[in-house]
Amino acid sequence: MKNGTVNLRDLTILIADAGSYTRRIVYGMLRGFGANRILEVGDAGGVLAALTHQKIDILICDAKLPPHDGLAVTYAIRRNSDNENRTLPILFMTSDAQQGTVKKARDAGVSMVVAKPMSPTTLYDRLAWVAFDRRQFIDCPTYFGPDRRFKIEGYPTGVGRRASDKSIEIGEKTEPNLDQDDIDSLFMAARAGQE
To answer: What biological-process terms (Gene Ontology) are attached (predicted)?
Structure first.
């Protein structure tokens, strides 16, 4: 998370989950963060209706949202070029945070995946990430959504594929690399809480 706080007071946040219990939990967390304009819906129709009637600033959507799923809702929002909410930040909640699920969500155009059950800290961190790290939206025939690249460590050919890509120069190393024993000891210390 970036340093700073997120002001949720004047944002309209839509929680979309079939379970009223989950909606209440997320609602309580958002109220604890200072949000005061929170809407709740239990299905995809409710999401699409809310988006046609008002400006939504953030959508927190469950992966298993009926009648189809949260991916279908994401596609409906992202693929409709007439939708004024097309660039809406979408936090995608899922209890299946395996790599394949996260990849499908990313490829549908979600802004961030949040594993359920989630803690208030996790939700706040994801909201802050979306607020402070606004990624450029990519519009091509097979995808519309936030740039799927989070960290660029250099382009394979030294030149990016997009006009907005900046050239990257990697400097010479200034100190020797850690050996494997040093790396292992760092991880062991972190696991033991001795950071």
So the answer is: phosphorelay signal transduction system
Predicted confidence (pLDDT) at residue 116 exceeds the cutoff of 50: yes
Q: Are 87 and 137 in contact (CB under 8 A)?
A: yes
pLDDT of residue 3: 46
CATH number at residue 44: 3.40.50.2300
Output the DSSP codes for 154-165: --TTSS-SSTTP
The tally of domains found in the chain comes to: 1
Question: Rounded to 5 degrees, what angle do the CA atoms 152, 147, 14 make?
Answer: 135
| Phi-psi category of residue 74: left, alpha or beta, with phi > 0 → left and psi -120 to 50 → alpha | alpha
The pLDDT, as a whole number, for residue 95 is 92
pLDDT in tens, 5-27: 778 888 999 999 999 999 999 99
Q: By the 8 A CB rule, do 153 and 132 touch? A: no
Token duo for residue 144: 């519309």
> For 69-104, how does the pLDDT look when each residue is reduced to its tens digit (9 = 90+)?
999 999 999 998 888 889 999 999 999 988 999 999
Smallest CA-to-CA distance from 124 within 9, 8, 11 is with: 8
Residues spanned by the domain of 54: 1-195
Whole-angstrom Cα distance, residue 127 to residue 41? 19
